[in-house]
Design goal:
Helix content: 25-40%
CATH topology of the largest domain: Uridine Diphospho-n-acetylenolpyruvylglucosamine Reductase, domain 3
Distance between the termini: 26 Å
Number of domains: 3
Number of strands: 19
Strand order of the largest sheet: 6-7-13-11-12
Order of helices and strands: EEHEEEEEHEHEEEEEEHEHEEEHE
CATH architecture of the largest domain: 2-Layer Sandwich
Structural class: alpha+beta
Number of helices: 6
CATH class of the largest domain: Alpha Beta
Low-confidence stretches: none
Radius of gyration: 19 Å
Bound molecules: flavin-adenine dinucleotide
Oligomer: single chain
Mean pLDDT: 97
């Protein structure tokens, strides 16, 4: 497996922002992954795991260490009621597969960017459903090369939280999903309805990483509503803008730098806190 140097990261993220990875690789198997993790330990490289890059913002300039893309972990296999999916399979590919095979339970993720590994890490959610409902088990390789299986309840899922967030040295390599059975046509219609709804809301019109902040459901405080109420819709720093159509989206309006986005995130946090006392919690992961 090749390890590349100075690889531009912007094309690998949906924000289309960020500098270069000092080192970069794309392992195709657990063996290759373990090999590269071993090399990183020997060289004392920091390791950053990258899925579809749809919830991550790399800073401008050089990103020290090794960025490991999981995109080559492909494969979808049925095993009774469970379906084993490689961490690098995109949600779009999985949705297309589910439609063809008549496997239901994923329709809510129609149009969700990113990989199944990233969604499992983030506990991605949409249309009142979330990954925790279907994740049955996760195969993990840790940075020391040890492999283990975590069952669903051990992941301690809650709103936009998983145990993986406490263990940055765990790599999700494969996920077992519990899916039902339905007619392909019904699944297609439901999946497509979600994707179309996102499209109609302008979610794909500009590069972004989706919602920048978590919603506070315990206090019924959607972050977008709070940001809108303090008058920040359309507010801009450099090429980064609070989206007119959805105040919880920061968009790259063209020519933005990662620094513009970071400064805009800070401005929103400060303004919201000063005016309302609410402390927003970031959803997008920043890697410097
Ligand atoms: C237009 C748009 C709409 C969106 N809508 C939604 C939405 O409705 N709901 C929602 O929840 N999110 C949404 N998002 C955010 C994003 O798509 C999801 O969070 C997605 O699940 C992230 O997956 P990813 O593969 O892109 O992860 P990445 O962005 O690559 O990574 C995110 C985090 O997961 C970690 N990670 C990724 N893969 C692995 C792995 N295999 N092992 C260990 N760690 C890993 C990374 O290190 C990083 O910390 C949206 C984004 C966009 C651009």
């Amino acid at each position: 497996m090749m390890i590349y140097q100075r690889v531009p990261l912007a094309p690998l993220t949906t924000f289309r922002l960020g500098g270069e990875a000092e080192f970069f690789c794309e392992p195709c198997s657990k063996e290759e992954l373990k090999e590269v993790l071993h090399l990183s330990r020997q060289n004392q490289w920091r390791v950053v795991i990258l899925g579809g890059g749809s919830n991550i913002l790399f800073a401008d300039g050089l990103i020290r260490g090794l960025v490991v893309s999981m995109r080559a972990f492909q494969g979808i296999e049925e095993e009774g009621e469970w379906v084993w999916v490689g961490a690098g399979v995109s949600m779009e590919t999985l949705n297309d597969w589910a439609i063809r095979r008549g496997r239901s339970g994923l329709e809510w993720s129609g149009g969700l960017p990113g990989t199944v590994g990233g969604a499992t890490y983030m506990n991605a959610r949409a249309y009142q459903h979330e990954m925790s409902e279907i994740v049955k088990a996760v195969r993990v390789v840790d940075f020391s090369g040890k492999e283990f299986l975590l069952t669903g309840e051990k992941i301690h899922y809650r709103y936009k939280y998983s145990l993986f967030m406490e263990h940055e040295d765990w790599v999700i390599v494969e996920i077992a999903l519990g899916l039902g059975v339905a007619s392909s046509e019904e699944i297609r219609q439901r999946t497509e309805a979600c994707r179309k709804d996102r499209e109609s809301k302008g979610q794909y019109a500009y590069p972004s990483a989706g919602c920048a902040f978590k919603n506070d459901y315990s206090r019924n405080l959607p972050a977008g509503k709070v940001i809108d109420e303090v008058g920040l819709k359309g507010f801009r720093i450099g090429g980064a803008e609070v989206y007119e159509k959805h105040a919880n989206f920061i968009i790259n309006k063209g020519g933005a730098t990662a620094e513009d986005v970071i400064r805009l995130l800070e401005k929103i946090e400060e303004e919201v806190y000063t005016k309302t006392g609410v402390r927003l919690e970031r959803e997008v992961k920043i890697v410097r």
